Amino acid sequence: MSRKDFQRLSQDFRRSSLMEATLVCIAQYGLTGATVRRITEEAGVTPGMVRHYFGSKNELITNAYAYLVGQLTSGAGERARQASGESGLQLRQFLLANLTTPNLSEDKVSLWATFIGRVKYEREFADIHREGYRDFLNLLETLIEPVLQEHGLPHGGEVCRRHAIALNGLIDGLWMEGSLDSGLYSRAILPGLIIEAGERLLGLPAGSLAGPVTAPDEQG
Fold first, then answer.
1. Pick the CATH number of 62-202 from 3.90.1150.10, 3.40.50.1980, 1.10.3720.10, 1.10.357.10
2. How does DSSP classify residue 109?
3. 162 — alpha (psi -120 to 50), left (phi > 0) or beta?
4. Shortest CA distance to 95 belongs to which of 205, 184, 172?
């Protein structure tokens, strides 16, 4: 590894550590309480690192929001990619990833709710939200299309986009309520619920998204 490569990787690690520490502090203390001092103490660096890597606390918070959105999508996408083989199994794993840990998390929903209030009023946050939503829909479309095709169902671009929007809405609702864990039902029903509801929404035969791979938190 060259010195330049090492420096770049070290910088990426420092940046990631600061963004992760920012999210931890916001989850604990809110946006106002997540001071630079608390963030840098959590990350184990000096306050000067914030200025060095991000320029200001506001830039750090903006980047932390983008980091959170990216992690939610990339984590589910990675689960799908690891399920090599049948397209139905890949879509299954993507759905399960959104309704099991680490995506299913009270802290993540609380962070999302904290940031979402800024989307309407701050362009940078609106742009991040729009880009994250677009990436999630695009990924869902690529997973949905081959499944519909295998079952002889319409699978054109507009059809897949409509299905992706609807399925995303289903995922969001279960993710928010499931993460908050109100006690009205057990989280253990969520993996099976998202699979069954996803099959119905896409017009697939029951059991089309069944598979031998079990999600970390999937039960029953």
1. 1.10.357.10
2. H
3. alpha
4. 172
178 φψ region: left (φ > 0), alpha (ψ -120 to 50), beta (else):
alpha
Report CA 191 to chain centroid distance, whole Å.
Answer: 16
- Residue 13 to residues 17, 72, 212, Cα–Cα distance (Å): 6, 19, 36
- Encode pLDDT of 70-82 as tens digits: 999 999 999 999 9
DSSP code string of 90-112: HHHHHHHHHTSTTTS-HHHHHHH
* Residue 12 token pair: 């990426």
Residue 161 pLDDT > 50, yes or no?
Answer: yes
Residues 20-32: tens digit of each pLDDT: 999 999 999 999 9
Say if residues 34 and 22 touch (Cβ distance below 8 Å).
yes
Q: For the segment 101-123, what is each residue's pLDDT rounded down to a tens digit?
A: 999 999 999 999 999 989 999 99
CA gap 187, 179 in Å, rounded: 8
Looking at domain 1-55, which CATH architecture does it have?
Orthogonal Bundle (1.10)
**pLDDT more than 90, % of the chain:** 85
Return d(Cα 207, Cα 168) in angstroms, integer.
Answer: 20
